[in-house]
Amino acid sequence: MAKEKILISVKTYPTLSKKYAELVCIAGFRENGSWVRIYPLRFRKLPYNDQFKKWEWIEVDLKKNKSDFRLESFRPLDYDCRLKKIGEIKADGDAWVERRKFALKKTYTNKTKLIKEAKNKSKPISLATFRPTKILEFVIEEVSREWDSNKLEALKQGNLFETQQSNVVRKLPYKFSYRFIDEEGLESKLMIEDWEIGQLFWNALKRHSGNEEKACEDVKKKYFDNFALTKDLYLFLGTTKLNHFIALNPFIIIGVFYPKHLNQLKLF
């Protein structure tokens, strides 16, 4: 299969898997603007020079993930995931004009329509760009501070010579969500699983000498006061394989897209 050129737009916070150890869900756009999900991928095990950022182009051999019915789901051709970074789309002063050409090629504003297309068993979409009509609230909820013990045990048993528990990515002790409405006023509350929000929390926690309340305040300032109230905010949504046809709303927020409003940019 020929190498594919993918513009990375999504990296989720790492999770533990009994089968693949530590995993990150990667998603992005092909040159024609269509979505693609790359999973499984052990991102932190990639050589440092191969660890790509959002909005970098990569070239990688992919094959359809036959264990995943979702149309956008592909997996690396080989376990080591040989890839090549071949460029990036820079932020261009927060206008993100070039990034918009990919991220906003198809944008949903209606929750009912989006879920209907996801539930279409002949062609179920599982990745989408969504523009909320209004963000109502940024929700912070405390969750378990430890990874599932069964997954930790399976990870240690399967990686006796390469993995110590101290090397496992830290589990976030909080769940961050947006509560928002769509164009019809229908409300949703979806968890944000973006890598950026997790790293923001850990950086803020270090900056505030371990004060979790202040760290959470910093996360809220960025994701609500900045992104939701001042930027042209879009949500990158993805379904989970397990809940795709079961949950009333199978989507979670796997990334955020937050350029300045174009009408603001025209003033300068």
Give the number of domains. Answer: 2
**Apparent shape:** globular
Name the helicity range. Answer: 10-25%
Terminal CA distance: 47 Å
Structure annotation, total helices: 6
**Radius of gyration from CA coordinates:** 19 Å
Q: Quick gist of this model?
A:
The chain has 268 residues and is an alpha+beta fold. The protein has helices at residues 97-103, 111-118, 149-158, 195-207, 212-230, 262-265, and strands at residues 4-11, 15-17, 21-23, 26-29, 35-38, 56-60, 62-64, 73-76, 83-88, 107-108, 127-130, 134-142, 174-181, 187-191, 234-239, 251-257.
Describe this structure in words.
The structure is a single chain. With 268 residues, the chain is an alpha+beta fold. It folds into two domains: 4-94, Beta Barrel (OB fold (Dihydrolipoamide Acetyltransferase, E2P)); 97-265. The protein is 23% helix and 30% strand. It is built from six helices and 16 strands. The protein has helices at 97-103, 111-118, 149-158, 195-207, 212-230, 262-265; strands at 4-11, 15-17, 21-23, 26-29, 35-38, 56-60, 62-64, 73-76, 83-88, 107-108, 127-130, 134-142, 174-181, 187-191, 234-239, 251-257. The strands form four sheets. A seven-stranded mixed sheet has the order 7-8-5-4-1-6-9, with no helix packed on it. A hairpin with a 5-residue loop joins strand 13 (174-181) and strand 14. Helix 4 (195-207) crosses helix 5. The chain is globular, with a radius of gyration of 19 Å. The termini are far apart. The model is unreliable at 160-165 (pLDDT under 50).
